[in-house]
Amino acid sequence: LPGRDTAVRYDELISCPEEEILEALVLGTRDYVRKNGFSKVVIALSGGIDSAITTVIAALAIGKESVTAVLMPSGFSSKGSIDDSTSLADNLGIKYITIPIAGIYGTYLKDLKSIFKSDEINVTKENIQARIRGSIIMALSNENGWLVLSTGNKSE
């Protein structure tokens, strides 16, 4: 740009450190939960980065006693993902529930076998697991009056 020092560092132009971003997310989450009349939230905790960050933000925003994490492992869940989820919940001091979905998933596949083109695991069958998890998390939300904090990202 004419008349500008082009040696200015990027971080000097964009002043938005991670701590400020975290504070904004915590404040926004707290405000959203309260303004919508909820005092507790439920999160599907998978062991991935999306659900881990959402869980940390929720615990900071409304307190660990107001957050319930739900682990819903399937036959495709790694031990590492399950261990990461339980470790995070323990470290944050939040309650967690484990609801395995392998049986439900197996029933879906069995009942839909006649309309599927093959037995091969593909995107359709992978997405069934997400739908099962979504149904379970919504059932818990409705039953207990908890707000669901979704952990989906742009690629989902």
UniProtKB/TrEMBL annotation:
Organism: marine sediment metagenome
Entry GO CC: cytoplasm
The entry's keywords: ATP-binding, Ligase, NAD, Nucleotide-binding
Coiled coil segments of this chain: none
Protein name: NAD/GMP synthase domain-containing protein
Keyword Nucleotide-binding among UniProt keywords: yes
Annotated ranges, domain NAD/GMP synthase: 22-156
An example molecular function term from Gene Ontology annotations: ATP binding
